[in-house]
Amino acid sequence: MFACVQPSSSVDRLADGLGTLLGYLMRTAEGDIFRDLMELDLSPSQVRALFLLDRAASPPAVHELAAELGLSMAAAGRAADALVRHGLAERHSDAVDRRVKRISATAAGRDLVGRLCAARRDDLRRFAESLTEEERTGLVNALAPILARPQVRALTIGPHC
């Protein structure tokens, strides 16, 4: 039997608060994109792979995709195969080493990523509109130093969501 443990530190309180907020945001998301993802039968790893392919400076090889996603080569290969089957990615030979197969997002894959990003932003905008001006200002001010951190900026600068 598990007992509900009261958060004992500011780290625990923040983690619990963020978890509650993220759960709320996910449950109130209105985007039809979740239905689209269910129809495509994409796993979370496949969606993550598609986002990585969309933002990659150059098409990665499957072993590079595996390393970036923290997956085994086999799991990354299966994710790539599923994306190719759905027409969201394509494989092609490396220009230097024909034995290496690279994978890149197709126009349909980039379109899906764009729709996912737009749906997420619309949901976040609806949440922001539900806040009072004072709550919005407080949240913007609280997030500013966190969003300015180099490790956060490195992964969030650019047109991608």
Automatic annotation (TrEMBL):
Cross-referenced SUPFAM superfamilies: Winged helix' DNA-binding domain
Q: Which residues form the HTH marR-type domain?
A: 15-148
Q: Which PANTHER family match?
A: MARR-FAMILY TRANSCRIPTIONAL REGULATOR (PTHR33164:SF57), TRANSCRIPTIONAL REGULATOR, MARR FAMILY (PTHR33164)
- Gene Ontology biological-process annotations: response to stress
Keywords, ordered alphabetically: DNA-binding
Example GO molecular function: DNA-binding transcription factor activity
Protein name as it appears in the record:
DNA-binding transcriptional regulator, MarR family
The cross-references to InterPro entries, in alphabetical order and at most eight, read: HTH_MarR-typ, MarR/SlyA-like, WH-like_DNA-bd_sf, WH_DNA-bd_sf
State the source organism's domain of life: Bacteria
Lineage per the UniProt record: Bacteria, Bacillati, Actinomycetota, Actinomycetes, Streptosporangiales
Q: Is Membrane given among the entry's keywords?
A: no
